[in-house]
Design a protein that fits this description.
613 residues, alpha/beta, 6-stranded parallel sheet, 28 helices, 49% helix, 7% strand, globular
Length: 613
């Protein structure tokens, strides 16, 4: 049976969910399908407060639930049903793009990949970029147009897209990738199960919470499951009135509805319309009472009349707008404009924007002793990449702890920055700035408390290091005539000799070793430990970078290699850095989950997969 509960506040829906949950039983946990990991964390905390314990709950995302339910039972395993999540689909498409026999038949794709500069695995990043874009399209099709996906899975173009030239090569790539994997995108698993002639799966009662709206494939999956299972959807709905009927749609088209419903309400309206139809109208409302509208001004007031009690009305324009949306009414005229309820800050740069928000958060916490930092949220409405890297420093400056939700590897604070610097080395010229960016990074220095980064920078300059791991890096350039200068190898040799030989002050000139002349860089006794660490790190980084640049291996192997790279070179001084280190390591180790076919890939392609995680 499928039923729905809708309300305009997550707290109201939470109360309804808590009322419906069975007593906590760790041996039979209640399944709650959540919209994101953030919702899962919030829900776990709130249910722990309400029930006294957070046990007896199984909180899973929608895709993970579909994969486990439709393909994970005995019937699904016997039929060898398998689903691909979006990153796995992108990896399979990248494998299809590495098939020259397939790509050569697709002229636009072949031209795009051939435009990669140079030889070797330089087309790897382009493969990953194109595969990621196509996976995003296919995932959107699977969710919103599931009727197209059987044709795409077979390598054919849906009839509606027959006139689209790009659909031709997209269909062939998708068909080849799915055939190679022997699996389908996770949203297609209910279709794959029906095609195999299997009945809907059986499952204990299921609650769905924290989904902003339900796509067509998700609605079909829940309807399919409801044939054998009690399914309850807890839907956030800004409007208490059911506005999914024909009259409601016509009103929305005439823009008679409040503006937020007209501009952004369609996904919620369509979800509610589908739930009304599929539940037979079994919708339970859980709305907060709406504030009363502002009273109409009296055009001819009686000066002798005693004033009546003031109605409880929304006290800001924002609150009145939300009340109008909830009751689906047009704005009422008011005698004087109320306070806006929204503040707009004009800032000259993204950094200043983040600093202003951090300052506001600090003032909110100072003004209300009962308020906690985890009760404040900052939503980035635009390009997140411009702001996430700035957030930790801005909030740390005002003493407010912050946590980045669903941030990619390059936004994991200084740890993510260090990992990216490491991953740049194998394809760099090993210039002074490239290696010093790693050597002097706090996450690297944290493992060597006895060294001084300023010494390392000074030695690098005095040793005349410009670029190149060794003399071989200068072959074919004008520097080839100076084999004992400008590269890291000669610098390390000079530093090593300086530990037991005098340098310039002796006036003896450079020492001769075989055919090389090496001028020792004299060291004080108390600098020798730091110099030895510097030399070992330079040697190790140069050797590892060369090895990584030449390695071709399956993504499973790359997951171990890159996680080992983090373990070898990075350390943490603070608990927050330790958490970031573990998160980044887990992200890199997760590359193994993308490896479905064991195809060997080069470093550039492996790095592109890692950075996109």
């Amino acid at each position: 049976m499928l039923r729905a509960v809708h309300g305009n506040r997550a707290e109201r829906l939470l109360a309804a969910l808590a009322d419906a949950l069975p007593p906590a039983d760790p041996f039979a946990p209640a399944t709650i399908v959540v919209g994101s990991q953030l919702v899962a964390r919030w829900l776990t905390r709130e249910l722990a407060f309400l029930r006294g314990v957070a046990g007896g709950l199984a909180l899973v995302t929608f895709d993970a639930f579909v994969a486990a339910t439709w393909a994970g039972d005995a019937a699904g395993r016997a039929a060898r049903l398998a689903g691909l999540d979006r990153p796995q689909l992108a990896a399979q498409l990248a494998s299809a793009l590495a098939d020259r026999g397939l790509v050569d038949r697709l002229a636009p794709v072949a031209a795009y990949l051939a435009a990669a500069p140079g030889a070797g695995d330089r087309a790897g990043p382009r493969r990953v970029q194109l595969a990621d874009h196509l996976a995003e399209l296919a995932w959107a099709y699977a969710l919103s147009r599931p009727d197209w996906m059987p044709a795409f899975a077979a390598g054919r173009v849906p009839d509606e897209l027959a006139a689209e030239p790009s659909a031709q090569w997209q269909a062939q790539l998708l068909g080849a990738a799915l055939a190679r994997a022997g699996a389908v995108p996770t949203p297609m698993l209910p279709w794959a199960r029906r095609r195999a002639g299997l009945p809907p799966p059986h499952h204990p009662p299921v609650a769905v919470f924290g989904m902003s709206f339900l796509a067509r494939a998700q609605l079909e999956a829940l309807t399919d499951l409801a044939q054998t299972t009690d399914v309850t959807v807890y839907a956030l709905d800004p409007c208490e009135e059911l506005w999914d009927d024909v009259a409601g749609r016509r009103a929305a088209e005439r823009t008679d509805d409040p503006l937020p419903l007209v501009l952004w309400g369609r996904p919620v309206r369509d979800t509610l319309a589908a739930l009304v139809e599929r539940t037979g109208g079994d919708l339970e409302p859980r709305f907060e009472p709406a504030p009363a509208p502002a009273p109409e001004p009296d055009p001819d007031p009686d000066p002798d009349a005693a004033p009546g009690p003031a109605p409880a009305a929304a006290d800001t324009a924002r609150a009145r707008l939300l009340a109008d949306v909830q009751t689906r009414r047009s704005p009422a005229p008011v005698a004087a404009p109320p306070p806006a309820g929204v503040s707009v800050h004009a800032c000259p740069s993204p950094r200043r924007e983040v600093e202003v928000i951090a300052g506001l958060a600090r003032r909110c916490l100072d003004a209300d002793p009962a308020l906690r930092a985890h009760e404040l949220a900052v939503w980035i409405g635009g390009d997140a990449e411009r702001y996430l890297a700035l957030a930790p420093a801005a909030f740390e400056a005002v003493g407010v702890p912050c946590h980045l939700i669903d941030a990619p590897i390059d936004d994991r604070g200084r740890i993510g920055e260090a990992v990216l610097a490491l991953l740049e080395l194998p394809t760099s010229t090993m210039a002074r700035r490239d290696l010093l960016r790693v050597l002097t990074h706090p996450a690297v220095l944290a493992g060597y408390p006895h060294v001084d980064a300023d010494d390392w920078v000074r030695w690098t300059e005095r040793l005349g290091i410009v670029h190149g791991a060794d003399a071989d890096a200068h072959v074919g350039t004008y520097l080839e005539a100076y084999p004992g200068l400008f590269h890291w190898d000669q610098g390390v040799r000079r530093l090593a000799l300086g530990a037991f030989m005098v340098g310039e002050r002796a006036g003896r000139g450079p020492a001769r070793i075989a055919s090389l002349e090496v001028a020792p860089e004299e060291l004080r006794a108390d600098d020798q430990a730091s110099a030895a660490t510097y030399a070992l790190l330079v040697r190790s980084l140069c050797a590892d970078a060369a090895w990584l640049a030449a390695l071709e291996a399956p993504l499973t192997t790359w997951a171990e290699v890159l996680a080992g790279l983090v373990d070898t070179y990075l350390a943490a001084r603070e608990p927050e850095a330790t958490r970031d280190l573990e998160r980044v390591r887990a992200l890199l180790a997760g590359l193994a989950g993308l490896d479905r076919d064991g195809r060997a890939v080069g470093f550039r392609e492996a790095r592109a997969h890692a950075v996109r995680r």
